[in-house]
Amino acid sequence: MLVPIIIIVVLVVLVVFVVGIYNGLVTKRNRVDEANSQIQVQLKRRHDLIPNLVNAVKGYMDFEKGVLTTVTEARAGAIAAGAQGPAAQAQAENVLTGALRSLFAVVENYPQLKANENVLSLQEQLTTTENQISFSRQHYNATVLEFNNSLQVFPNVLIAGPMGFTKREFFEAEPEAAEVPVVNLG
Amino acid sequence: MTTFYSEESANRRNSFLLALVVVAFLAVFGFVIGYAIGYANGDPVLWGIGALAIAVAVGLLSAMGSYYGGDQLVLASSHAQEVTREQSPQLFNVVGEMAVAAGIPMPKVYIIDDPSPNAFATGRDPQHSSVAITSGLLSKLTREELQGVLGHEMSHIRNYDIRFTLIVGVMVGSIALLAQLFLRYTFWFGGGRRSGNDNNSGGGGLAIVFLLVGVVLAILAPIFTALVQMAVSRQREYLADASSVELTRNPHGLETALAKLAADNESLHSANGATQHLYIVNPLKKLGGGSDLFSTHPPIVDRINRLRQLTGDPPMDPSEVRQLTGLE
């Protein structure tokens, strides 16, 4: 009589244990997905802001049409790459980031533009969007780290594989981020 | 490895435990007071249980009140005004950025119209949270420094520090209130009753002993809770500074922001003893160095030096410190 009871108790404990690990992994995987959708929201926001910026500066920058064309093309490329998987998307978005940087560098040369309320407001909006993109990537990587760690530690590793949990990829930084960072002390 | 998720669950647990301890403390406190008053009136047990029930009810109500409405109370008593994105676009943007970095929903944004630079966060969880910043601080900071300060506040929100400090504030406030009430009423009841009850003179001595215990409790209670509140909140400030850098990846922003906060010695008029532990720097008065027992915040010089360790910069030398605090 005692042996079956012990077996049942052990089984119940085991099931509770496995369910606990499973639920923990699901929660962490959902955090990763949520963090990823945050990035997409910010990227979309940047795509929406760019036409306004281009329109606002177009009139002033007759001689620098090339910069505007680069930005517009990079935007189109980034939108198209959205459907081609994370790696292609990341690359196209980095091209867009570079194009926007050179646009703002050029704006610095036009005093009327720097004083234009509309351009200033767009610049602040794009700055915050750029920051949100990098912060949401940072947060995404933090959640991926948390998720991957919990997949690989013992005893989770025994359960994670058979239950279909797979490692997630980190968001890789753009190559120039590996260079010496420039810190703006304001 | 300590992650912010483990910090979060520790805070949830501690908030609950703190509320429980305070309610238990109130129960004992109420019973002693009731027993003492009852002794003078002839039925100590009845009075004791009655007062215990009242004290527990007060404790539970204040715990629930602080959980659901404490943030509004704190914001209203600080004269904070909610602002819209149109009124303060950059502040809104930076709050949004730091919320994204911390992975929490966008908190409500408030401005306190006061030249003294300061900021705090409050609420019961990240879904019901608010950040408030004084107009003085907003006008003094660059965008990067604002990120540092708001990163500090976001980590308070993300770690559930806001829930804990909210409950501490309101519970400490209600204990202080009760102690005050008690001190006032025992002198009326106790003094008046004893003189008319001379036939019960044997118990009179015991009643006096109970009254003394009650008075000692009433004096000790606020001091004790204030000490807990202060010790607990200093560690939180260091942790929030470190987490802010974890979010912004830029120790210099917060460092120069702290230097600007330290350089100003003006008190914040709307802050008080029950809310001072919420702020990024102590709003009441800024005594130079020395982290003494009764300080809710670590000295700013110490906080700046800890941030400098992250970048490998040397700590502030004495002349820098003198220049910063304006003290000789």
Can you describe what's shown?
Chain A is mostly helical and 186 residues long. Helix content of chain A is 76%, strand content 0%. Chain A has one domain: LemA-like domain (de novo design (two linked rop proteins), Up-down Bundle), CATH 1.20.1440. Chain A is built from 6 helices and no strands. Chain B has a domain at 4-77 and 163-220. In chain B, helix 2 crosses helix 6. Chain B has 328 residues and is α+β, with helices and mostly antiparallel strands. Chain B is elongated, with a radius of gyration of 23 Å. Classes of the chains: A mainly alpha (186), B alpha+beta (328). Chain A binds chain B through residues 31, 34-35, 38, 42, 121, 124-125, 127-128, 131-132, 135-136, 138-139, 142-143, 146, 149, 183-186, and chain B through 1, 3, 5, 89-90, 93-94, 96-98, 100-103, 142-145, 247, 249-250, 252-253, 256.
Strand order of the largest sheet of chain B: 1-2-4-3
Q: How would you state the average pLDDT of chain A, rounded?
A: 83
What is the overall pLDDT average of chain B? 78
Number of strands of chain A: 0
CATH topology of chain A: de novo design (two linked rop proteins)
Give the H and E element order of chain A: HHHHHH
* Shape call of chain A: rod-shaped
Distance between the termini of chain B: 43 Å
Low-confidence stretches of chain B: 191-202, 286-291
Task: Name the CATH class of chain A.
Answer: Mainly Alpha
Using a beta-carbon cutoff below 8 angstroms, give the protein chain pair with the largest interface and the number of residues from each chain: A-B, 24 and 24 residues
Portion of residues in beta strands of chain B equals: 5-15%
Q: Tell me the β content of chain A.
A: under 5%
Distance between the termini of chain A: 77 Å
Rg calculated over all Cα atoms of chain A: 24 Å
The name of the CATH architecture of chain A is Up-down Bundle
Number of helices of chain A: 6
Largest sheet of chain B: 4 strands, mixed
Number of E strands of chain B: 4
Helix/strand/pairing category of chain A: mainly alpha
When the domains of chain A are counted, the total is 1
